[in-house]
Amino acid sequence: MDIFNAYNQAIAISLVIIVSYCFNYISKKTNIPSVLLLIALGIGFQELLKRSEIDLSNYVMAALELLGIVGLIMIVLEGSLDLELKKEKKALLIKSFFVALLSLLATAFAIAYLFHTFIVDNFYTALLYAIPLSILSSAIIIPSVANLMDSKREFMIYESTFSDILGIMFFYFMIGGAETASISEVVTDVSGSIVLTVVLSLILSYALVLLLQQLQSKVKLFFLISVLVLLYSTGKLFHLSSLLIIMVFGVVLNNYQLFFRGKLRKLIREHALKEITEDFHMVTMETAFVVRTFFFVIFGMTLDFSGITNLPSIYISLGILFSTFLIRFIFLKIFVGKGILPQLWIAPRGLVTVLLFFSIPVTMQSEAFNPAILLMVILASSFIMSGGLMAKKSEDDPEVDKLSFEDWKQLDEEVKSLTSHRKGEEQKMQP
C-alpha cells in the first residue's frame, strides 16, 4: 500500500479522528484518560511502520513542531475563553489561581533541585527542564472531571487552565532571560515584556472584539484564529510574551460586559457578540480536540522506550511524583481545606508538558537528561488520576453524604437564591 497516496492519507486522518471520538467515550465510562489511548495508538503506528520498514521520522517531527505552535495557541485560547470574571466566582478564581501559581513554582523548584543534584550541572537548565513537568494538563483534566460535583469540577477546570497559562509564560520567560547576565536583568526584562505585552494585548483585544462584531460574512471565526496566530508569531519575532495576547483576547471576549463600560458600552452589539462567543467556543473546542488528537498520536510514534528500564531515571521519576503530590496536598489543604479528594490525585502531565519539552532550545538542552523520565511521569500521573477518579466513583455511599461543610454551605446558598428568584417571579405573575 502506498501511504503517500492522497486517498490513503485522507482515510488515515479520518480514521484517527473517529477513533479519538471513540476514545473520549471510553474515557468518560472508565475514567481512563483518552490521552493514554491516543499515545498507545501512536505506538501501534510506530510498530506498524517499523515492520513495514517505512521511515517517516522527518515528516513526523515537522508535523509535531507545527502542531506544537497551534496547540499552544489553542490551549491558551480555549482556557481563557472559560474564565468568567463574575463576583460570585471571585473566591473560586482566587483559590484556584493561588493553588495553580504556588504549586507550579514550588514543584518547579523542587524538581529543578532534583535534576540539579543528580543530572544537570547548571541550575538554570535544570529549572527549564523542570517547568514542563510542573504544569497540570487541562487537555486531560477538563474532559476527565465531568462527573465531579460542580464546585470541585469548576475548581479543577480553573486551576488547570491557570496552570497551563502561567506555566507556559514562566517557561518562555526563562528562555527569554537565558542570555541576561544577572537576576536583576532577568526581572527587569521580564517585567518590561509583561507590561508592554499587556498594554498591547488590551489595545488589540478591544480592536479585535469591535472588528469581530462588524464582520458580516458567516466565515469569520477561522479568519480570527488566523489573525491570532499571526499576532502570536509576530510577537515571537519581536521577543514579546505572545501568549499573553491570546489570553487577554480570550478573557476580554468572554467578559466583554466587564471591559466595555460607560461610553464604550454604546459600541457593543450584545446580540452579535453573544452569538460570536458561543460559536467561537465551539470552534476552539473542536480545533483543540483535533490538535490534541494528532499531537498525542504523533508523540506516540516518536517514543523511544530504550531508557525506561534505567534505574536512576525510575528513581528520579518517583521523586518527581512524590514532590508533586506532597506540594499539591499542602496547598490544597491551605486554600481548600476539607474535601480535597479526588482533586489531590488529579495532577496529570500531558500536552503542554510535551510541547514545552520540544520547545527547549538546542543550546540549552542537556545530554544527561533521559527522555524516558518525561514518558514515565506522564503515564504514571495519568494512571494515578484514573485510580483516584475510579476510587471516588466506586465508593458505596452517595456523593451527597460526603460533602464538606463548605460544600453544604454553597449548596444551601444556591437553594436560597433559587427559592428567592422563584418567589420574585411568582409575585410578578400575580395581578
**Strand elements, count:** 0
Structural class of the helix and strand makeup?
A: mainly alpha
Average of pLDDT? 79
The shape, in one word, is globular
Order of helices and strands: HHHHHHHHHHHHHHHH
| Level-2 CATH architecture | Up-down Bundle
CATH topology, by name, is: Na+/H+ antiporter like fold
What is the secondary structure topology, with strand pairs?
Elements: H1 6-30, H2 34-51, H3 57-80, H4 90-118, H5 123-130, H6 138-144, H7 150-176, H8 183-214, H9 221-237, H10 242-254, H11 256-259, H12 270-302, H13 311-335, H14 351-358, H15 372-393, H16 405-429
Helix pairs in contact: 2-12, 3-7, 3-10, 3-12, 3-14, 4-5, 4-7, 4-13, 8-10, 9-10, 13-15
Report what the structure shows.
With 431 residues, the chain is an all-alpha fold. Helix content is 74%, strand content 0%. It has one domain (59-288, 301-395): Na+/H+ antiporter like fold. It contains 16 helices and no strands. The longest helix is centred in the middle third of the chain and has 33 residues, at 270-302.
Keywords:
single chain; 431 residues; mainly alpha; Na+/H+ antiporter like fold; 16 helices; 74% helix
Brief characterization of the structure:
By secondary structure, the protein is mainly alpha-helical.
